[in-house]
Design brief:
By secondary structure, this protein is an alpha/beta fold. Helix content is 25%, strand content 25%. The chain contains three helices and six strands. The longest helix is centred in the N-terminal third of the chain and has 28 residues. The radius of gyration is 23 Å and the shape is elongated.
Length: 155
């Protein structure tokens, strides 16, 4: 039933409101996904070695080969559990920046977990332990199809 001055029926208005609601929810989801992909985190960084008390496998099940760590063929990190809850997962490639140790900046792959909050642990060969300095750095997920420039071949 239409009333004087009314341009649409209640059913049509309800359908229009549903379309508007779905459009707004979709837009919100796109914005949140975009925000999550570019989200940066300030984290405390430390290092760990393969073998000994650290073991020879990561939490993701990958075997650690020290010679590959030394050569830079693998660049693996452990992230704190709160970072996994924030959206990081095994196999994600992350971008590390603003680290006090220059060779640490660049791309790393998430392969392990650690207990501390807002922390990252870099898998480092024992021969490099004297060149690594604990510091605060920035991490974020590498975006699909994003190219990261290398500085001096370090990445």
């Amino acid at each position: 039933k239409m009333y004087p001055g009314q341009t649409t029926t209640p059913t049509k208005r309800r359908k229009n409101m549903n379309k508007l609601f779905i459009t707004l929810i979709s837009l919100f989801c796109v914005i949140m996904i975009s925000w999550a992909q570019t989200n940066e985190f300030q984290v405390k960084s430390t290092m760990y070695y393969a073998g000994g008390k650290y073991g020879t496998h990561t939490a993701s099940g990958d075997r650690i080969h020290p010679h590959k760590v030394l050569s830079g063929e693998v660049r693996w990190v452990a992230l704190s559990l709160d970072l996994y809850r924030a959206g990081f997962a095994f196999g994600d490639t992350i971008v590390v920046s603003e680290h006090k140790t220059p060779w640490v900046n660049g791309l790393w792959v998430v392969k392990d977990k650690m207990a501390h909050s807002r922390s990252i642990d870099f898998l480092v060969h024992r021969q490099k332990r004297g060149t690594f300095y604990n510091s605060v750095c920035t991490i974020r997920k590498k975006l699909p199809n994003e190219s990261i420039p290398t500085i001096g071949g370090e990445y």
